[in-house]
Every structure is written in structure tokens, then in C-alpha cells.
Design brief:
binds zinc ion; 4-stranded antiparallel sheet; single chain; alpha+beta; 23% strand
Length: 71
């Protein structure tokens, strides 16, 4: 298994898109410590295809941890 670290939406609200790993139980363990079932996106996706386009929706804690680097 490679790692499936990606961006997931907990809600469509501001600062509620988190960077984490989708577990076998269907919840995302985010870098900031929250755990949540991800919102289903168009085309039946769960994770975003890349960096979130709407920066206001990014969880600042996840974003800074992600930039700190590479795990
Ligand atoms: Zn977060």
C-alpha cells in the first residue's frame, strides 16, 4: 500500500478541508487530529484531485503541517 494522503472535505464550510489518510473504516484521519467521514464529491470522488482550489476552505493546521514536510 502506498499512502493515500490527500485532501478531504469535512464540510463545505471555511477551513474545513483537511489533509489526511482515508482509513478502512471510511473515516479520514487528518493531520490536525480530527477524524471524520469525508463528504462525497462530484463524480463519486472522496478526495480532491490535488491542492484545494478554494484556499478559504483549507484547514490552516493541516496546511502548515503538510508544508512542514514530508511524511
Ligand atoms: Zn485539519
Amino acid at each position: 500500500m502506498g499512502h493515500l494522503v490527500s485532501w478531504y472535505l469535512r464540510s463545505r464550510g471555511d477551513r474545513d478541508t483537511h489533509h489526511g489518510v482515508l482509513g478502512p473504516d471510511g473515516t479520514v484521519a487528518a493531520a490536525c487530529g480530527v477524524r471524520f467521514p469525508p463528504l462525497r464529491l462530484p463524480y463519486d470522488r472522496l478526495s480532491l484531485p490535488g491542492y484545494p482550489q478554494d484556499r478559504d476552505q483549507i484547514c490552516p493546521d493541516c496546511d502548515s503541517r503538510r508544508r512542514e514536510g514530508a511524511r
